[in-house]
Amino acid sequence: xxxxxxxxxxxxxxxxxxxxxxxxxxxxxxxxxxxxxxxxxxxxxxxxxxxxxxxxxxxxxxxxxxxxxxxxxxxxxxxxxxxxxxxxxxxxxxxxxxxxxxxxxxxxxxxxxxxxxxxxxxxxxxxxxxxxxxxxxxxxxxxxxxxxxxxxxxxxxxxxxxxxxxxxxxxxxxxxxxxxxxxxxxxxxxxxxxxxxxxxxxxxxxxxxxxxxxxxxxxxxxxxxxxxxxxxxxxxxxxxxxxxxxxxxxxxxxxxxxxxxxxxxxxxxxxxxxxxxxxxxxxxxxxxxxxxxxxxxxxxxxxxxxxxxxxxxxxxxxxxxxxxxxxxxxxxxxxxxxxxxxxxxxxxxxxxxxxxxxxxxxxxxxxxxxxxxxxxxxxxxxxxxxxxxxxxxxxxxxxxxxxxxxxxxxxxxxxxxxxxxxxxxxxxxxxxxxxxxxxxxxxxxxxxxxxxxxxxxxxxxxxxxxxxxxxxxxxxxxxxxxxxxxxxxxxxxxxxxxxxxxxxxxxxxxxxxxxxxxxxxxxxxxxxxxxxxxxxxxxxxxxxxxxxxxxxxxxxxxxxxxxxxxxxxxxxxxxxxxxxxxxxxxxxxxxxxxxxxxxxxxxxxxxxxxxxxxxxxxxxxxxxxxxxxxxxxxxxxxxxxxxxxxxxxxxxxxxxxxxxxxxxxxxxxxxxxxxxxxxxxxxxxxxxx
Length: 689
Fold this sequence. Notes:
- The chain is mainly beta.
- It is built from three helices and 53 strands.
- Strands 18, 21, 22, 24, 29, 30, 31 and 35 form an eight-stranded antiparallel sheet that branches. Strands 36, 39, 40, 42, 47, 48, 49 and 53 form an eight-stranded antiparallel sheet that branches.
- The chain is extended and about 110 Å long.
């Protein structure tokens, strides 16, 4: 009697499970929804997910029910009950019914059962039934069209000109298009409503054949077959206006390579210096006065609301005031201006347009810079490049429609002009398209000039010749030329044939004794105050050096302007450049790790690059950069001493003598590009682009 009463009491205390929450329900990985929010699924037996809770914390099972109307309009219902799990457990399983119809709305709900009581259905009260549609048909392939780049037409428009590609599938349930261009980008585009088309803007960055592939995707995630659309992109079209400003001294007009000539004011002098390695022979010097300007007295940018780009080489004679290199009138003001802004804490290069300003870089008096301002009407953004690199971020611009005369060296301000340019200017181009990043880098590229190549194959009268007949490297005491085997005999066949080690590169190399051995030119080789590059092949004779050893240096009056050495305490090759030609001046150091050679192997190809335009130094090891091998460095120290191989200035004398072998010394005026470094150290002349 007591046991029976206890059981009844326990049963009376049981509370029904909690009603399942709609937010805890999924079908085919998609949230529970109904009506316009119902799920479309590609699986005939979709997976159901639910989380069920027992109020008393016990075990519960799930009772699932689904219903739909068949083709005769008769309602069909299916149910199933799961095994019991602990309260709060996820229930995941595939619906087991084989007769779920395609393209029909199926409703379902679930309730929890603790074996004694059942919860309300998930659809009751504030809940709702879930709905899904099983879609068993893939969408049809998309058609692709483009007015700017028609399919399979040779050759069309070009780099820097947008194309618009429309993707449209006949299927009415398409909600996305997965696309990919041959060289990128790839992505997903979505129509405004199911079954709609999508128009995609695309900016060609390179010329050549390209292909757009597209797949239409419907609401169930089913994909169509692939559509392949091939088109052919021409090279970017040339500028609509181009002035080199290399006119003879005394000219009053600047001839145009393209477009109209530009009249010069009395403050313009032709025949000025030009940036080396650019193809410009001379430039125009503007004196910064009201007469220092050039103008074709007509607009060049036909409509500043459309895409355009303006570029120039510029060298300021001062940086303490705002100055304009290029602009175009727009009523009583400048519609855009490219130049130098000195209103901030430090002077910067700037491109202003339609209320926006993009700025960056560090103008330096007497230093050339290439400036490029681009307005992309497709994105509505302005961008500034300095020396081929984008600066700052893009800025949204809203240029006006007013159009006036193009100006070189000044900006319109009411009935007069302001911000007159003081310095040199040349190589002006105006494009009616986007100038893409690779083109920006090409426009700003300054081709390095070879200064010397010492192959160190042999020596005559104590000197090793420069390949082009320039200044030789004179060998000091403790320096010899090692010659590799000459092939006159074979040690494997002739026991009397001496074993001669091969040279590092080619037939010979320079061997240094580590005590006094060195080689040097008669005077400086590179201008260390400007951009320069040097490469060398070196192999250390010691496996565990006990002191620093220098392979290359070039000195100033009190210290080396640069020094490349091995530092055994850190197992690293280092480039050291002082901030001033003073004893004990602070040095900027970059390094790359490498174990000492111990006289074995092929040594290392080391290259140094100082880029005065970007104020950076780089140390390459075997053609590669690494963490810590690049640093900011503004203002190289001018050196007057000769190029030294195998030693450095130490105090009032020489030290850090190298014990090892040296080969293939290359020197250049200008900064080699990263992809040109790999050409050094192989016994051949590099191809400089």
